[in-house]
Protein 1
Amino acid sequence: MWVLPEAASLKVGILGTGMVGSTLGSKLVQLGHEVRMGSRLANNEKAVEWEKSNGPRASHGTFADAAGFGEIVFNCTAGTASLAALTAAGASNLKGKVLVDVANPLDFSKGMPPSLAVCNTDSLGEQIQRTFPSVKVVKSLNTMNCVLMVDPSLVRGEHDVFVCGNDGQAKDRVKEILKSFGWKSVIDLGDITAARGTEMVLPLWLRLMGLFQSPKFNFKVVRAS
Ligand SMILES: NC(=O)c1ccc[n+]([C@@H]2O[C@H](COP(=O)([O-])OP(=O)(O)OC[C@H]3O[C@@H](n4cnc5c(N)ncnc54)[C@H](OP(=O)(O)O)[C@@H]3O)[C@@H](O)[C@H]2O)c1
């Protein structure tokens, strides 16, 4: 398997031990990066297992350990808990870093289907950016299932991944990572307020998943020219 030359290898912090954190973390390790997975507990069982199955470039610790380790950090925590998780990660550990926000503010407290805990005039991406002003928040990958995030070829033809955020250089770094995952069509929606739209497609995404009985689909924007 092709692995990055050492100079191109990044230190990446993954906040989250669910299927998204684990899938993104494993893909980044496979690409040659060093990845630390963070959790509320220093010895979260899923993080221990993930480290074991991903070899020497994988490690685990608390949210703060992972945030401090990463040059780039991915927020893969439950959306309604993301601000708490990022607070535990520590503003000083995140300061000046690119934070790829993959989370969706899904509120399951009233059962299925979930509702959006924030929407319309605000978004989780914006809440994170406001709470951590020194962090370069880039919202991306939240509009698809995690298996597709790291392998767009699972869906035939060209289809789209969105990015938005206030810092152009931060978005460029994230676009490079997306390319390394195999993404060809990356649509830059502008500043972080575009997270409202990418989070608000979730009710549609959830309905489509029920209809197709599979999470392996994605959105494609088609234009006249
Ligand atoms: N599943 C998908 O394919 C998919 C696709 C697109 C976007 N997303 C979004 O990606 C995010 C991760 O999804 P997931 O299914 O992998 O995992 P998840 O079950 O939504 O979240 C798991 C993570 O959230 C943390 N967490 C939960 N409650 C917390 C609290 N009260 N305080 C601090 N941290 C808390 C957990 O911490 P511990 O490690 O300590 O337990 C764990 O690391 C979600 O926002 C989801 O909406 C998911």
Protein 2
Amino acid sequence: MHFSRVFPRLRLFLVEKEESVARHQSGHNSGVIHSGIYYKPGSLKARLCVEGAAAMCAFCREYGIPYEICGKLIVATGDDEVPRLHSLLERGRANGLAGLKLVEQEQAREIEPHCGGVAWLLVPGTGITEYTKVCEKYAELISAQGGSVRTSTEVKGIIQRAGETVIETTRGSFSTRYVINCSGLHSDRVSRMAGATPAVEIVPFRGEYYDLVPERRHLVRGLIYPVPDLRFPFLGVHFTRRIGGDVDAGPNAVLAFKREGYRKTDFNLRDVSETFAYPGFWKMAATYWRSGAAEFYRSVHKSAFVQALQKLVPEIRGSDLVPDGSGVRAQALRPDGSLVDDFQFVCTGNMLHVWNVPSPAATASLPIGREIVQMAQQGFGL
Ligand SMILES: Cc1cc2nc3c(=O)[nH]c(=O)nc-3n(C[C@H](O)[C@H](O)[C@H](O)COP(=O)(O)OP(=O)(O)OC[C@H]3O[C@@H](n4cnc5c(N)ncnc54)[C@H](O)[C@@H]3O)c2cc1C
């Protein structure tokens, strides 16, 4: 969208393999407008999330997309988590967030009458929206600005020739001068199609959600989150109120056996073989096998999932939760087994690769677009 605005004379052609936009990560997320509290000061995530949250609210206001700034309560569920809660407060302040406040139990209960815990951090700027509607508006604006959005068109091959690049798709081939690869769970493969050697491999992690039954939704007013372990890019299971009033619980983070595998039973031989053949996967598994196993256990045993949630809201019972959908995260992994934490865009020749845009990339999508266009402008010499 930003590209077609900045370069109205270049013809922008966006190809999407699904029938409509936002069928994968952008349409299967928690719908949170993150404040930017979690991210390392100075990182792209920190900078673009804080800016993106404000830009997302303004965008929603301008185009009549529902959003709400409902605030978030981060709950330390034991004394051992309190120092980490304080570090989070410092981090949020370093990132320029206003209004962060450690609150006493009485005040925490005024905000979330049913929450448990021993210490509480209020993040007043966090909000919620519907990212499918945001993406549909982005697509509409691309078309209005003279670009084309071609759905049901899968990129199958990319042939680099002198002076041009041929994109082979399921609906014919076309030639282009520049390519921006932002294909989410398939971004490493699309790079390889063009002969590039991605510095990372995409490993899919499924996040499963439960829904609170309507009679128990009153247990959660806004967003209730645990104190995350900042060594991991995942936040831990939490409660999220949706725009329509539903309350979600989750998502967990389990290794998916299919890149777009939304059910526990989904399996794709190519996806699994590629993950297991990647040396970085085994190095990551050797480091994080304990937390990986715990996530897997929680995925299979609802009672373990419920126990994790009870730390935040002790009144929650298994009967309050019904299975809801899931989302699959594209997590970029380095050959040494480390998870790429920050956003990562790389420009090589006439192609720009978007390799790592995990959460909070929906929140930060507007400034991410701007950064990508700036990088393309320099890299392509536009
Ligand atoms: C469970 C979960 C919860 C999250 N919660 C939040 C949240 O609350 N707030 C937040 O800010 N972020 C959240 N995120 C992160 C956010 O949703 C993602 O970072 C963001 O949506 C990534 O957008 P994307 O465009 O890179 O990827 P995607 O939305 O996955 O888009 C990539 C697109 O490329 C298409 N594609 C792939 N291969 C091809 C091909 N060969 N040819 C043509 N098209 C192709 C796909 O069909 C897809 O539509 C969450 C993510 C998940 C998974």
